[in-house]
Amino acid sequence: MWVLVSLLSNIMPTGHHNSWGGSSGAVSAALQMVTNGGDTEGLFRGAFMQSGMVLPSGDISLGQQNYDNLVRAAGCAGANDTLGCLRQVPFPALKEAVNMSPSFLSYRVCHDSLIPLSAVANSI
């Protein structure tokens, strides 16, 4: 980050930069706006986002069940380092395990992490 801040400060005064992103880049730009409690540390003051947004994500622990299922499906359940094991799984087997995971808009994903019940209740 310090490299980016240093480069930008030579081009334009601090606090006058805007981030930009399209599609997944828009999601990234939006996440950068809300990370760190919304403190961009002077890196930029705003963002232009096209075809992407931040979705409520809920507590990260809500995804543990999906990770555990992926680990099991990939044959890494008994490993001491499950992430290290997943990195060694041949691509066809890993792809098959990932394909058994909930999709982005599946009920389980939306229910567990993308749309927390408190957010839904507060919007009614």
State the distance separating the first and last CA atoms: 39 Å
Order of helices and strands: HEHEHHHHH
Low-confidence stretches: 112-124
Order of strands across the biggest sheet?
1-2
Level of helix content? 40-55%
**Average predicted local confidence, pLDDT:** 75
Task: Give the beta-strand count.
Answer: 2
CA radius of gyration: 19 Å
Describe what you observe in this structure:
By secondary structure, this protein is mainly alpha-helical. The protein has two domains: 2-50, no CATH class; 60-123. The protein contains seven helices and two strands, in the order αβαβααααα. The chain has a two-stranded parallel ribbon with strand order 1-2. Helix 2 (24-34) links the parallel strand 1 (18-22) and strand 2. It is elongated. Residues 112-124 have low confidence and may be disordered.
What is the topological layout?
Layout lengths: L1 H10 L6 E5 L1 H11 L11 E5 L13 H10 L8 H7 L2 H9 L7 H8 L2 H7 L1
Features:
mainly alpha, two-stranded parallel ribbon, 8% strand, disordered C terminus
Q: How would you summarize what this structure contains?
A:
The chain is mostly helical. 50% of the residues lie in helices and 8% in strands. Helix 2 links the parallel strand 1 and strand 2.
